[in-house]
Amino acid sequence: MSTVRIDRELEEFRRLMEVPSTFEEGFSWTALVGALFVALLMVPGAMYMQLLAGFGVGPAAQWVTVVLFIEVARRAHKRLRRPEIFVLFYMAGAVMVQPMQGLLWNQFFVQSRAGTGSGVAERMVECWWVAPTDPEILARRSFFNPAWYPAIGMMVFGTLMGRLNSSILSYGLFRVASDIEKLPFPMAPIGAQGIMALAEQQSEEGGAGADAKEGWRWRVFSIGGVLGLSFGTLYMALPAISSAVLDRPITIFPIPFVDWTQKTSTFLPAVATGISLNLGHLVTGMVLPFFAMLGSFIGLIITVVANPLLYRAGMLPSWDAGDDTVRTLFKNNIDFYFSFSIGVALAIALAGLWQVYRGLRQRAKLRRKQQLLRLEIEEERPLTPPGRGDIRARWILATYLFTSSAYIVVSGLLINWHSGVMTVLLFFAFVYTPLISYVTARLEGLAGQVVEIPMVREAAFILSGYSGGVKVWFLPVPMANYGQRTVFWRQAELTGTRFWSIWKAELLLVPIVLIAAIVFAQFIWSLAPIPGPEYPYTERMWELNAANRCIILTSTLGRFSQFQEAFNWKYLVAGAGFGTVLFAVMYLLHMPIMLTYGVVRGLNQTMPHAVLPNFIGALIGRYYFQRRMGLKWRQYIPVVAAGFSCGMGLITVFGVGMVFLARAVIKIPF
Predict the structure, then answer these.
(1) Which H or E run includes 367?
(2) CB neighbour list of residue 59: distance below 8 Å, 6 or more residues apart
(3) Quick one: average pLDDT of 580-607?
(4) Alpha carbon distance 24, 39 (integer Å)
(5) What is the pLDDT of residues 34-53, one digit of tens each?
(6) What is the pTM for the complete model shown?
(7) Cα angle, residue 501 at apex, residues 495 and 505 outer, rounded to 5°
(8) Which of 16, 221, 272, 464 could be cross-linked to 643 through a Cys-Cys bond (beta carbons 3.0 to 4.6 Å apart)?
(9) Which residues form the domain of 465?
(10) Which residues lie below 8 Å from residue 593, measured CB to CB, with a gap of 6+?
(11) Contact (CB, 8 A) for 120 and 470
């Protein structure tokens, strides 16, 4: 008789928290004020740092907001409950969504060297809803221009539909995975631990109470905050402030990474080498499961060994000894890894689908066994916990039909109802999206993993018969993976938050997000050209991203293209075969699930810049701290990471505020 294999590392995460017996309302005017606070102070900082260093303020904005409001409430002799903190935390994070970031990218892409050289830029004139192509309009650096209104309108449409889908459809998948199939969602407690820390801080300050006994979370959070403040001063604040008064920012730690590729080219040909000096990567390595980090590192080693062999075998012919990381990655992608990566990703997807199928079979056997032993759950027992704030299934289905139809109608108008493309849109809306979302929701519930089948969108449009330019690649396609957000609903459940609190918050979030995004994107773009010296990440990486994007866009130009140059069936099959065999061998050897996924995902052109510090952090956490503290370390480190993000966010926002003040000064010409 087959039994379910239990991964001990996942079991550690499962046991961190239990679902409470009661649920409380979390939405309040405090949450609304917190969202406005983030929109006015944090959003511009996040947008600026995304352009400067390649990552935004991230969770830091949420922690800063929650800590500030807890302190204000304490001085008013009030106490925020866990659900209130969770909703405040959620709203602060949701406001950080940057829909205008895509328009900033589009203004660069239509005039990029990669777009011009590949012939894509000249066809972008047809995509009037993406970005204007007139150089005079782009040179003004202003979104408040009639030429930009169609692009802004499409951004608003996508934001509205996306919010509606992510709020309702992911909830429906959570109902299936959690309430019906009773899956544990092992990674959900990580996100809920920080909320518990802040709630317990109030209990500790308030004196006696059950939660006061576990006030350690606030002390650990404070340690992480001090680390974040200290490191953020040198890594983020100094470059930001110095850029306001100097031609180029002062950087003690190079942003986004230190590049060693040219120095190691003699003994590691065609290998991108370097390291990111962002301490956050080290902390992340401690938080995430050890075997996942080990698997990624093994994947990196495989890449370091394989690339020189591929180069000597003539499979990476475009690489030159003087190429840096950016050029090395792009050339290797064209020569080999574009196709090989598709194959590897297919192997991961097939493995995920197989795990879901196997889990369904085991569950069916368990149900039959329970029926034979008369251990089945009685029918009168409620399927959902009472008081959680659930909605009926018909509203979930109605929402999905409405949003999918809206996507299809708008795309049909833009593409002139091309029959092949319309067939693809219907397939995505009513076949692919429900299937991949359910599979991902189930895999998230089992092992904290996500299934993504690569190149489905690209292959579908190429096979649709469309060859009239690049319009098809900029349609609002009804294709998404809503299973990834099911973990959020388990976190809400763990903190005792009524689900209606989330939906009330969403109604107020959309206008706040849109207004803040448009206003601050306009202000930042008016300060300086993007990319430019003020933004080292965009100056270094956006051209690479544009070049990689053009590979796909050239496939529908109706002529020989970069896509045909990069796509190779032999390499794709090799990647799929190698990934599948490796996954099967590791599974048969009873390797941990996280290690298996990490290694297979690493069978790519893995960049070492973040992988190496992630792995170092994982080693320190497992072989030093965990040996000293035992299972408590798994409880401590998520709270440390939350505090670190909070500290980084505080000092980052301070630095960006100084930049805005300096750049907003009006100089009098006498």
Answers:
(1) helix 338-372
(2) 93, 642, 645, 649
(3) 72
(4) 26
(5) 778 777 777 777 777 778 76
(6) 0.71
(7) 120
(8) 221
(9) 16-280+345-374+387-575+629-664
(10) 7, 10, 291, 447, 449
(11) yes
